[in-house]
Amino acid sequence: MRNSWRALARLGGAALLAAALVAPAPAAASPAPTATLTEVTNFGSNPSGLRMHVYVPDNVAPRPAVVVAVHYCTGSGPAFYNGSGREFATLADRYGYIVVYPSATRSGNCFDVYTQQALRRDGGSDPVGIRSMVEHVRRAYNADPNRTFVTGASSGAMMTNVLLGNYPDVFRAGAAFMGVPFGCFATTPPSTWNSECANGQVVRTPQQWGDLVRGSYPGYTGPRPRMQVWHGTNDSTLRYPNFNEQIKQWTNVLGVGQTPAYTDSPRSGWTRTRYGGTGTTAPVEGVSIQGGGHDLPTSGMAAMAIAFFGLS
Q: Where is the secretion signal located (predicted)?
């Protein structure tokens, strides 16, 4: 089982370099140094002991947006910052938003997207800690509560789905790189790996997928966050059928049709479909990468995610 999680590792060696590049910060809810990745402690309720790092650009906006960027298994926030997630910080320098990089601390450094505690609002575990990070940044930087977003790769993409399900009133949109639908990875303790889901063998109707999301926050009737999903057709770790299952789930949650309203190819081998709208901020967007493996995001993808968030 541990080996299965290790298969999700990407750029793991970057974690060693990252440790030397991170500046510690005081615990108080006060602004961190700008233009450097800074650790924040005592940021609020944190039942699973996550670590928090924040990147604040020199030109941070007066009422900044917040982007949470969640790493893959065996990774960390600093490793993601110094690796495939760095472009989110680079774009922050241009657009003035703040990036939060959470770090999982359990064995394997994977996020909890499989327990019953994680799959319901305020149930405990990692989602609660990440929400606390968002609230800390809002207090410290007077961040705009209507412009909070989340993105992630692999385990972080699974967490993106979970956070949008648990906290539709916190996050306005998400971008999931190589993820699975909300609830797909649920397991029975002590298991932390769901092979059926990873292999793309969990197939449900849009209504069934949507009900899983709605069940995480019973009684909620407010607006739901938009979703952008990315997947490579040759992904052998979290297999490609999960791409379409996520689209089925979020089109149902957002109440839009499953027939694309718009299709194009922003780059060779990339097929982009939009649902419920034709513009950059359509309710649901999918980007399929022909021949792509378990190595997203690559150059240029973060910029499309930021555009989907409406931040560029």
A: 1-29
